[in-house]
Amino acid sequence: MELFLIAIFTVLAFYGLVCAVAEMFSKLTKEKYIEEIYTVVTVKDKQDSIEGIIRVLMCGRPNSGNVIIVDLGSADGTLEIARKLILEYPLLLVYNKNEYIEFLEADAVGNFDRDN
Questions:
Q1: Which of 38, 65, 92, 95 could be disulfide-bonded to 100 (CB atoms 3.0-4.6 Å)?
Q2: pTM for the full model?
Q3: Which residues constitute the domain of residue 72?
């Protein structure tokens, strides 16, 4: 039970830190670039906790696509559970490792084209 409470407080502390950083960037940039800031969470074999992690991260921003979950090859149902939550949070992004690499490569090309 004590370990469970520590885990919950750790996740909440992480969420609070993410919110504080996002708020700081929001004030500094006047929200000009905030859409391009992502919270990337890598997971592996977290079937028992992934749903809670996503719900805590998305709690304050259900209509924002600023959270990316990257599964690093789980042998359990972590990736499937995360993908089911896309139905509830449509702008949540969930990738396996290879899909995430493709996303980064495509985004880098898009940013390069946009700069020119």
A1: 95
A2: 0.63
A3: 2-115
